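thought: fold this chain, then report.
action: predict
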Amino acid sequence: MKNLIKLLFLLFLFTSLSVASEANWTGKWHINWRLGIFTLQMKQSGTLVTGTYEPSDGTLKGEIKGKTLDAETLSENNVSNHIVLTLSENGKSFFGKTDFGGWITGIRLADDSAYNSVKVDRSSPLATFYSFLALGNAVRGGNYEILDKALSLLEYTDAQKKLRHVVKLKLTTTFFQIIDECMVDRIDFFQKEIKQSHEVTLHQLGSDVVIPLSFVQDEKGEWLIKMPETEVLDAKLKALLKARGKYEVDPNDNLKLQTPRDTMRTFYEQYDRWEKGGAKYVISTMNLSEVDPAIHEWQAPLLAYYLKSVLDRISYVIYQEIPNDPKSRKPYVHFYHNIANIIIAPYTVDGKTIWQFSPKTLVTIDELYNEMENVKELVPTREIADNRLYFKLKSTAKYISPLLLQKVQYTEIWQIILLGIIVLIALAVAWLIRYVVVYLFRRFYITKRWTEEQITLQYIRPVQLGTFAFVLLNGAHQLGLPNIVFSVIKAGTHLLMVISVTWIFYNLITIIFAIMLIHAKRTSTNVDEIIVSLAGSIFRILIVTAALFTIAEIFNIPYKTVVAGLGIGGLAFAIAAKDTIANFFGSAIIIADRPFKTGDRIKIDSDVGVITNVGIRSTKIRTLQDTILTVPNNRITQEMIENYSEREAMRIDTDFYFALDTAKEALDKLDHELSTFLKEHEEVDQKKVILTGVNDFTKRGIYFGLSFFVKANTEMEYSDIRHRIMTDIGQIIRDNGIEMVMINQLDVQPS
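observation:
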């Protein structure tokens, strides 16, 4: 039974995959090829595909072979063409080639909303002309298949009527480009129509070039634009471009924002491409100088939506009604209202003049949006993904009770309520995160023996602080709070996150360098411990410095000016901090010369002790009195350093005083026995000098000296060996019957 179920499941899966992989050519396709663009409608029945395309009333018929469609096309003048189209894996596009080596590409149109969004109206010259402008603007915005509709608004000359469909499309595009270079005023149409005239003259701002337009009525009484002769079209376009200092039409020229028209067009076209790279261009059209820089990233999408929504309620935007003179510097007022105006004005950015929606427009656009929210949109404004949750929350609040939309100061009641809930959620998450941190620390060898108090102080508290700030910031980000409120929240949460990260990394560096120090002590390299100690100090300073600069950035403190000023005040700074700088370089010299390492017993001047730590500024020494002596590194580099720990052996110097009547033979014998004893003693370093014998005669006695080295590394070893050797030497002296005398130190001067 189980095997049967498995077999049925595999059969179902295989069938599903087979069906999913079948090519589906049914639908409407947006076609691009070398000579132009058009729309293709196809229908699939089994392996047979038939279709029609609008230019020239063409037809298509072909057969499917896997992902490939092998077809023949036939236009109205009986011109046939063989094409092979290959469907993409996701079925949303295809690529093909024609008999004569040309390429053709197609993208599936999900629906006809874009195609049908622009209506054609031929009821008057004004309606016909504005329909043509709307179609042309839509084509330039990316809806290329709409261009075919524009052909129905034009009355071609007899010669032009004989041209192929593709050539007509090119002429139509040229005609639109000519009109696009001019300024349009619908009042001119009303004045002309009152006089029953069918002609209007368009002007290019800032030049003497004029474009006369003529309108004719067809047999149905509908108005058409009379298309100029082909030669006239080319000449007029060249004249218009020359007046602007251009050689050809640049489809992306508007992105430079050189005129109010460029700004409006960029805003509209790129808004629809927000998630596909258009966001940066939309933001470039808005002067955000009066918006807190700390919240630009959050505020810009919301301001863009408010602005687009208000514009969509005012009227259909026809770019050609907006000034496009690049030499003009007069601000353009697109809309007047008692609450606020929509203004596009010139501003200097990075040394260049660009046109942007004014700061005042953006600061007041939310008030204007609230004032006009009940006005029906002529075109539904698409919500940006960044704002979608905000508008859903606001809509829900309005559905629950319109009172929730009332404002307390600048903030709506529903926003205040949700902000309070988010604070509680952030506190709860921060409280729960402590258990995660404790669990993780108990799993690591280094930290599993730490007390809970130690873990809490060093890591749980900063993690909780950062978690609270992170949850609060991201939650508040979705509420569409006013600038002043969100600015405070963002600055505060960013400050907490900086403190949290700095706190955590500071403690991590302490752990990491403690481990490295343990490893360094196991190596034979003298300098390892000093480098680790210095590196730990440097990293701590860098972390704290980075945190301070980040905090300054959060609160817009002009630290960059201060840093730049250090170049001018560098000399004064160096003089004021000469000791600190000297100590820093002293630490570098210690690393380079390696006079000692941590744990060495040294003598600096009259101070003797063991090195415990070498820092950037100073070195710490534990003295013989068990105190910590802090010595500036600069002093260490200037003093004579005696490193006791570098000794290969420890020296013993001792003196004996014998009676003046001691015989020479006895002294010679004693010298021989002591020399032999020391040279044969296993704890005496035979590689180093051994000195024995009479040094001098004094008034009170004979001065007999011994000097040799013993194999000792520590004071304790030295003391034990000295005790054993000196007692043996004393016994040898007594065995030789030589009398030792006590002499006052003042009398021990050579005679």
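thought: worth noting. Confidence is low (pLDDT under 50) at residues 4-21, 111-115, 568-576, 745-751.
final: tokens above.
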